[in-house]
Amino acid sequence: MKRATTGRILKIGLLISLISATVCTSLYACMSMNGYTSTVDLSKVDLVQLEEPEPEDPVAVIRTSMGDISVRLFPEEAPNAVKNFEELANAGFYDDTYVFQLEPKVYFAAGSKTPDGELGDAYQEEHESIEREISDNLWPFRGALCALTTKSDTGFWKMFLDKVKYYNGSRFILVDSIEFTDDLIKEMYGDNPDNKVARAFEQLGGVPNYSQQMTVFGQTYAGFDVLDAITEAATTGEENHKTPAEEIRIRTVEITTYEKAPAPVTTGTDAPGSTTATTTTTAAE
């Protein structure tokens, strides 16, 4: 029964309408979705995703059937999500798993043992009950690696007192980007032309409405062409639950450090935190 419930929550949790972040004042940004509001002091935000990785920084090389995506991990900002992801990757959990959902050009969800996103016999309570971690320094920019929120600890009084807890599991999302219209950009900046978060979204792309709503624990630095290829793949299924028309697999996830990671091939794709545009174009095996 627990596994079936988790599967239902997964599908419900992915039905996220694309709404924008709203800037409230010149110093604070307010993100609101589904009745939940988060306030961030922009003067204290450190956009670590835009920084060049250091040699010893942990990275994950996500090898897919369409190529490789290299992601810097942030254990200082989301320690539990990173630990969970690294443990699963090192144990081979992601070997030959599926990209099970995608919103064209916006994101893809992956890491399930079945094409429909279910875990089945692979369900492990200790790896599917990681409390959501929200950091003011991590945002759903293009290339962000996010832990999929799959369940919540709710109840009338918990909701009334704003003490609802949300949990992540093994499955993950890689964010691409919505279209940034002039009206959306104006709304993000609000009354603050120096809003550095809004500026980063404008320059890099991403999905602003996911801000402060799910655990961000990594940032792509190479393989943006592969990210685009996956999110632009043909889809099938219902409007709110699109799946790849042709199977896309996660071959494996390799945990290493930036200095030891395979050197990416330069192809001209822009990447946050990189002075030279690089992307991995390893052919599928």
Automatic annotation (TrEMBL):
Function: PPIases accelerate the folding of proteins. It catalyzes the cis-trans isomerization of proline imidic peptide bonds in oligopeptides.
Name listed for the protein in its UniProt record: peptidylprolyl isomerase
Keyword Cytoplasm: no
Organism the protein comes from: Ruminococcus champanellensis (strain DSM 18848 / JCM 17042 / KCTC 15320 / 18P13)
Root EC class: isomerase
Pfam families, per the entry: Pro_isomerase
Keywords assigned by UniProt, alphabetized: Isomerase, Membrane, Rotamase, Transmembrane, Transmembrane helix
PANTHER family xrefs: PEPTIDYL-PROLYL CIS-TRANS ISOMERASE-RELATED, PEPTIDYLPROLYL ISOMERASE DOMAIN AND WD REPEAT-CONTAINING PROTEIN 1
Region of interest: Disordered: 263-285
Keyword Transmembrane helix: yes
EC number(s) from the headed UniProt entry: 5.2.1.8
Record-annotated PPIase cyclophilin-type domain positions: 59-255
PROSITE patterns (UniProt xref): CSA_PPIASE_2 (PS50072), PROKAR_LIPOPROTEIN (PS51257)
InterPro entries xref list: Cyclophilin-like_dom_sf (IPR029000), Cyclophilin-type_PPIase_dom (IPR002130), Cyclophilin_A-like (IPR044666)
Record field: transmembrane: 12-29
A GO molecular-function descriptor: peptidyl-prolyl cis-trans isomerase activity
Residue spans of biased composition, Low complexity class: 266-285
